[in-house]
Amino acid sequence: HGGTWNGAQLVPSQWVTDSTSVVSESRFSGVYYGLGWWTQTIDGVQVHYAWGDHGEFVMFVPSLDIVVARFGRQFGFNAPIGDSSGGDVGVHIWPTVLTRIAETVAGTRG
Question: How much of the chain is helix, strand and coil, in % rounded to 5?
Fold first, then answer.
């Protein structure tokens, strides 16, 4: 929404454009970095995300009008996925998360 929420401009729209524009490519295939956001295309959908070292992350998908945030509790990018103690979800599950969200939004999943 160009930095707006409920009609209020929270951050400048130019910042949104600039921060999600690709500045460099990471060493991971298909993952790019803007100014604070990683950018990746998953199943044809543009995804922007940031993650922290304790498992926290923010992901937004403009084309689906979705924002997902998660607080973390366990140190390390490679903490066990699915760990009941709240381990880092890691970048390995992004495709599954996005696919499930997209299916739900499209009404193809219960």
Answer: 25, 30, 50
Distance in angstroms (rounded) separating the CA atoms of residues 102 and 50: 20
DSSP 65-109: TEEEEE---S-STTPPTT-TTT----GGGHHHHHHHHHHHHHT--
Write the pLDDT tens digit of every residue in 29-59. 668 888 888 888 877 888 888 877 777 778 8
Nearest by Cα to 59 from 76, 79, 38, 44: 38
Task: Name residues whose C-beta falls within 8 Å of residue 73's C-beta, 6 or more positions apart in sequence.
Answer: 54, 55, 85, 86, 87
| Neighbouring-strand partners of residue 9 | 4
pTM, 2 dp: 0.65
